[in-house]
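We modelled the chain as a single entity of 216 amino acids. Its sequence is:
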Amino acid sequence: MLNQRGFSGYHRLVEDLELLVAWRGGDAGAGGRLFARHFDCIYRFFGRKLAGDVSDLVQRTFLRCVESRDAIRDGNSVRTYLYAIARNELYQHFRDKQKNQQLDFSVSSLCDLGESPSSAVARRGDNALLVQALEQIPLDLQLVIELHYWEGLSGADVATVLGIPEGTVRSRLRRALEQLRATIGTLSANATARWATVDSFDEWARSLRPYEAAVD
């Protein structure tokens, strides 16, 4: 049986698909309403990683969705599809900015790429520590943590966004958490003590809201 959160998510998915069908049928207003439902999460996605104005990247993401709306399979989440487009746009943005089309995002972090959006997000206590650490691990790993913990995507949806097999998501998340823990340990001598006060690092990470200010 679905809990309240699960029912809400299922209801949103059904409404999204209804709007998608209407949009494909020529109802431009349905497309506008569909985009309005997901604007905040896409804006937040870019705002977490770029210090400047992200409006252009948000617009480009929705434009790509318009151009490829028939590629969205009816069983897929529209939000997941938008995240996948946003990820591609973000990576291309960095390639263009760095004038390097061969950038390896399994190695490069936001700090390596010269981006530090920390001033735009909550920076108090453990939230501040977590944001700082996320900026120092490879972007591929930052994304898997972000999508899993704070966007609530399923393993299958994370796989779609990142363009990897679903079976790889769990191992990548484990590797991401290992690097995040190691990075936090170098930033704070007291971090290990804080982890000991909760059942696990996993629980600690889930309890935080490192990007609250970026969402408001």
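As a brief sanity check on the tokenised model: Residues 105-216 form a domain with the Arc Repressor Mutant, subunit A fold (CATH 1.10.10.10). The mean pLDDT is 81.
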